[in-house]
Amino acid sequence: MYNDHIEGHSFNFRQHMAMLSADICALDHSHKVMLMLLCDSCIAFSSLSCQITKHLAIIDGEQIFTGLLSLTNELGQIRACNLVATKSHSQFELSMNSIQKLLDLYGHSHPQLIYTDTMANKQFLERCFLLLRKNVIPVEKHDHLEPFELSDAFWTNIFVKNTASSINDAICTILEDVPEDKGCVVVGFDSEWNVELAPNRRVQQQGKTAVIQIAYQS
User: What angle do CA 25, 131, 98 make, to 5 degrees?
Assistant: First the structure.
């Protein structure tokens, strides 16, 4: 029933995405089983797409789609959402060209900046969106200059804590900065753990949390 309801509104989802702006974008491939991408009215559609990445069209134990490509705009709205077999540019070139035409159709400007974690996407994206090259001076033109070096104040100190008492002491130093009245402190938090994969790339077992990283101040 849920799938039928979502598929029945797919035209509205696609129309909504087609009319969105794309001034500053983020491009990324997701290979996780579950990833929630937020969009004003596309939350259900995007979450469903991410769930089926590892379950759709499996032949002889091998999955056809290895990931989900998503392009979000400056508001975090989904601008493109495509299941891809590989990370090759040919897998999403048609989608990028379609976005270019839709931006012109609805009177939006082309992307001025696109964030990506793969530098191999640079020339491909510049070919799809010419505005990315406007007023940009390649670094190679200034390779004769002395390299700019950061002072010691910019380098991060890493403290490894592996006992209960040392971890508590480190956390207490952060808690001491919490204001007594209204206010808060901001920390960065991340955790890592091992997973065991089956031959078909599905997660068989997830281990316990192995490492927790907390970043505070500088």
Answer: 65
Q: How far apart are CA 145 and CA 168, in angstroms?
A: 47
**Across the chain, where does the E strand assignment appear?**
24-30, 58-59, 62-63, 67-72, 78-84, 113-116, 187-197, 203-216
Question: Domain residue spans in the chain?
Answer: 2-134, 153-216
In order of 32, 91, 151, 218, the CA distances from 155 in angstroms are 32, 39, 8, 8
pLDDT, one tens digit per residue, over 51-103 is 555 566 666 767 777 788 889 999 999 898 888 888 888 888 888 999 999 99
Report the alpha-carbon distance of residue 60 to residue 10 in Å, rounded: 30
Write down the pTM of the prediction.
0.55
DSSP 23: S
Q: Which tokens in the block code for residue 47?
A: 């979450």
